[in-house]
Amino acid sequence: MKVGLGAKRKIKRGGYHQPAGKEVEAVSTRKQGANSRSRPSHSDQTSAGAAACRRKFLKYFPQGFRDETYLDWERDYKWESHGRWEEALGQAEFRRLLRARAFAEIAGRAVRVEQRSRHSMLFSFEKMALRDAVKSDDGARLFTAGLYEFLHGGGNMPRKFNQWCEIVAALPRRQTRVLTWPLVTVFGYIAQPDTHIFLKPNVTRIAARKYGFDFGYQSRPSWEIYSNYLEFADTVRRDLRDLKPRDMIDLQSFMWVQGSDEYPDE
């Protein structure tokens, strides 16, 4: 997945295969705070949509999530970003820097990890908004303490996610807004791909519509919408269990193939 890249990517041979990790597990708290609604996950429409999405994915990547082209085009650079995060801001190092009140250093490392991705996950205006937000001491402190609590703090996920959204909304801003779905979800996705998923609104909405999943998107980030998105990911994981998706990187990449104009439909 990449932003604003129109040219077709060149196939890379010999891409490494990251060993299969834990299967993505459903989080029991995902439905807390979300409106109860009937899902068409077993309807004829959804079954037909899911089958069409599967065919499209396998058309591009015949070996599924272990396909060499898939690894090169979609998975490897995201997994490499996760590795860089672990080196720069693994939990122990993150906690050490927080205790040293090295807020600017933490913010700088977080920004650099995302920027070093082969294909950026944020739009340029989002990068600019984040850089501006953490330039001040107060902005860096608010961002880093809030991010640590979101990733490693106690309490249930609904509370932590909504608190994280409030913190991002409160960051200093100059011209462009900081509170966007990509900014709210990118660092959880990079740091904890077994748990968190990245949300690009337009592509995700297209993917959900094609799949036949009732995704109740709203532009302002909240746990209600994020938990609905996690339900979508769980549905895809169950439907593709024979292809053995490893984590949210695989699930989000599958959705990207469905909704991105980089991958035209049949």
Write the layout of secondary structure elements.
Elements (H helix, E strand, L loop, with lengths): L43 H17 L7 H22 L1 H9 L3 H13 L8 H10 L3 H16 L4 H14 L10 H11 L9 H11 L11 H17 L8 H12 L7
Helix pairs in contact: 1-9, 2-4, 3-6, 4-6, 6-7, 9-11
Textual characterization of the structure:
This protein is mostly helical and 266 residues long. It has two domains: 40-79 and 195-259; 81-178, no CATH class. It has eleven helices and no strands. The protein has helices spanning 44-60, 68-89, 91-99, 103-115, 124-133, 137-152, 157-170, 181-191, 201-211, 223-239, 248-259. Helix 1 (44-60) packs across helix 9 (201-211). The longest helix is centred in the N-terminal third of the chain and has 22 residues, at 68-89. The radius of gyration is 18 Å and the shape is globular. It starts with 43 loop residues before the first helix and ends in a 7-residue tail after the last helix. Residues 2-43 have low confidence and may be disordered.
